[in-house]
Design brief:
mainly alpha; globular
Length: 128
Amino acid sequence: MSWGDVLLIAGGLGAGFLSGTIGIGGGLLFVPTMTIGFRLSQAVAQGTSLVAIVPTAIVGGFTHLREGNVLIRPALWMGGGGVVGAVIGALVAVEVPGPILARVWGAFLVASAYRLGIQAIRPSSPTR
């Protein structure tokens, strides 16, 4: 086992923990770790991330299901749409040049950070 393997395991542990606790997708950690830390191409990092996220999502999803934190009908609708969107997105991603894909990914991260920052500043509204 190399230090690179240890770092990948630590990254998976961190992504799984954050996914389970605050609901972020593991790709928010996996993709930058692989592109910046391991210098993989954007397409390879995204594909690897998607496969690595499957067990994390299954375990986290079943845990939240067991705890009663899931609305089944919306989850099924979003999951079905997500499957179709993932196929289309993957087919598009393999055709887009890496630097453009990286810029789109970066813009998504910046927009997500902005949105989360705004939500953190504003007073929370009551939840259902």
